[in-house]
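ok new one. same drill as before - structure tokens go in, u give me an amino acid for every spot. 270 of them this time. try not to just spam alanines like last time pls lmao
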């Protein structure tokens, strides 16, 4: 299992590096739309939508992403920033208020339509953030994604080695507080290395932001685990050997990238 996870992760990393720095903007946008569509297909299964409902859900998601691309190409920069910030505000509401309340209260939403709406609030801002952060710089997007990966790796190995105290046993029995501590430690080392190479801001602020980032990543990971548990499945799909589906690989990115993009765009908007 670990071997297949590592092989798949290395292949995905090489593919990402290849497309991140070489694809023209239009092709990158098309790739992001495809990723959002794959996530929507997997989410439709978790939401227990019937075949026709899944097709409608995918069509509406595609229409929303294409509408955003059209809007960006035809409207002014202030209008674009305003619309993007409103979408990121929905994501912030989801991850900072709704999802924590959802998990604390152990909500079970049986309505597939309502679950589909949650999927839009989860996936569309993530796709938009991948476009916006790439537009700022492919390096910015890569470094932010790498922070999540480093946290995931640190949590995985420290949890396997030292894990005893369960983080949320009713949602994901395998996750432990020791894993979270390992993620914090790994991210701290990562930030120190990146800051040493690119000393672009005060180190304490960057560290605080990174630790907060780990908290968001944990929430994203736990939320997808809760949805999978509700759906009665182990993985969201079988697309990635050793990892499951696309959602299993980007769960922590859905709760982090939109808020990072919001902070960066707020700086531009002000």
């Amino acid at each position: 299992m670990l071997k297949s996870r590592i092989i798949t992760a290395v292949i995905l990393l090489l593919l990402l590096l290849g497309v991140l720095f070489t694809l023209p903007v239009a092709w990158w946008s098309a790739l992001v739309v495809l990723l959002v569509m794959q996530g929507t297909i997997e989410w439709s299964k978790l939401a227990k939508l019937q075949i026709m409902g899944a097709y409608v859900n995918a069509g509406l998601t595609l229409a929303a992403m294409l509408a955003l691309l059209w809007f960006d190409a035809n409207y002014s920069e202030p209008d674009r920033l305003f619309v993007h910030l409103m979408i990121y505000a929905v994501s912030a509401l989801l991850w900072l208020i709704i999802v924590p309340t959802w998990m604390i209260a152990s909500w079970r939403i049986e309505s597939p339509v309502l679950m589909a709406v949650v999927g839009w609030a989860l996936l569309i801002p993530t796709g938009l953030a991948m476009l916006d952060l790439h537009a700022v710089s492919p390096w910015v997007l890569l470094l932010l994604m790498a922070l999540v990966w480093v946290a995931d790796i640190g949590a995985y190995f420290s949890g396997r080695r030292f894990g005893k105290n369960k983080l949320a046993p009713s949602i994901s029995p395998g996750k432990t507080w020791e894993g979270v501590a390992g993620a914090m430690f790994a991210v701290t080392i990562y930030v120190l290395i990146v800051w040493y190479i690119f000393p672009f801001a005060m180190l304490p602020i960057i560290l605080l932001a990174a630790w907060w980032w780990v908290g968001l990543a944990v929430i994203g990971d736990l939320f997808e685990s809760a949805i999978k548990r509700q759906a009665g499945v182990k993985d969201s799909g079988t697309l990635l050997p050793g990892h499951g589906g696309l959602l299993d690989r980007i769960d922590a990115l859905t709760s982090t990238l939109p808020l990072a993009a919001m902070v960066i765009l707020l700086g531009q908007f002000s």
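The two ends are 48 Å apart (CA to CA). and btw The CA atoms of residues 159 and 205 lie 27 Å apart.
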